[in-house]
Amino acid sequence: MDEHSVVSLGKANVSAADVLAVARGGARVELSADALAEMAASRARIDALAAEPRPVYGVSTGFGALAVRHISPELRAQLQRSLVRSHAAGMGPQVEREVVRALMFLRLKTLASGRTGVRPLIARTMAALLNADITPVVREYGSLGCSGDLAPLSHCALVLMGEGEAYGPDGTVRPATELLAEAGITPVELHEKEGLALINGTDGMLGMLVMACADLARLYTTADITAAMSLEALLGTEKVLAPELHAIRPHPGQTASAANMLAVLAGSGLTGHHQDDAPRVQDAYSLRCAPQVAGAGRDTLAHARLVADRELAAAVDNPVVLPDGRVESNGNFHGAPVGYVLDFLAIAAADLGSIAERRTDRLLDKNRSHGLPPFLADDPGVDSGLMIAQYTQAALVSENKRLAVPASVDSIPSSAMQEDHVSMGWSAARKLRSAVQNLSRVLAVELTAAARALEIRRDSYTSRDTDPLAPATAAALAAVRAAGVGGVGPDRFLAPDLDAAAALVASGGLIEAVEAVTGPLS
Description:
CATH topology of the largest domain: Fumarase C, Chain A, domain 2
Keywords: Cytoplasm, Histidine metabolism, Lyase
Number of strands: 9
Number of helices: 20
Organism: Peterkaempfera bronchialis
Strand order of the largest sheet: 4-6-7
GO molecular function: histidine ammonia-lyase activity; phenylalanine ammonia-lyase activity
Order of helices and strands: EHEHHEHHEEHEEHHHHHHHHEEHHHHHH
Radius of gyration: 27 Å
GO biological process, one term: L-histidine catabolic process to glutamate and formamide
EC number: 4.3.1.3
Number of domains: 2
Shape: elongated
Strand content: 5-15%
CATH superfamily of the largest domain: Fumarase/aspartase (Central domain)
């Protein structure tokens, strides 16, 4: 954990950078004085309603289809405990710790807004869990993305009560009661509405959206680099990247991708030379249309970030305490806005991987690679080169096509038809995480192939006085080799090479190496 990084929660909206700092960077969380005061004020309103004889949903009633029952004061603490225990019903594999930390931080952000009516003690205790690096065990299945991410958030609330299981700072799963005691954290006893406020939000799907946006931003820049490397290795022309061609179709993402590719190819001695020995009027679509496809994905990403920013500014709960003191029921917990863009990003990620795989296949096919050896093998026939690397890449691309099927078009009624339309936003987020990881590996295979092809071009270049590669692609090739990805030579155990390339892509090291030559890319 980075003990020097602190994120303060107050009236101001949190940013995507704040989410990443807490979820991935281990930043500490502090509650501002204005947030604590706002929570105390809204809690006073809940206490006043709790004392009234009339039923108020979430305060003095049951939940969902059971909201028709009025709960007497002596049963209300039990009501909140029962809510959390019964809703902590997740099943399946354990969710990644960074996802759970994001989920907890975003729920804490909403508590700190003062719109939920919880006591400041609840928010302080949740902040203490985050700062002690205690991470509840959350299961894969249990959220329908409506009425909030109920089961995942309930597993977190359970640990707040000193029950259930959690990861400790050492990464070991242990009973929550032991971990809280060691950290000096007193379990909370929930009062009216507090159990409901802890579980009624879109925090899980939003946290995964924020992290996916950050990862995809890196991958889209990586894809521009690998596309440029493939174009250069295939002796394609960079003329299709000219700014004036993209200005007449003014999609911002397309313009940015074309500019990136052009910057990476600046100074190349290989681009455009296909006209010398194998005339072709135009390059294949996977080369010529690379900015259009990657650019459309960039614009999709920009839209997703807009939705994420709006959701980060929201206070999602039901009922909610309005600034004028009214406590009103609402449907803001419905995950449709987030679910739609999660699915949209999965579609864009699948297509970016698809076009990258087509470029890889072209590099390996001697009939279309303009002089490169079959499968980039050292001794074709004896050696298979990167033949099966493309199989692996194709399997990942195919998997991403399946993951691109939207989750948000599905709905299964729940809670005795009271909750008769749900978003499935959590499911959309879970499959997007898989798609992003797959895309990173797809680009790593293209990077491996393009680097080997460029090395072959360099070795066969007639003039030894000048490096034919663009300075930026030469830097990329050097970074690939420094990362442990082997070059041209007899066949060897290939999986470690591909893993090393994937690690380089995931770390952002490839972008850093190229930007050292080009300056900042978009």
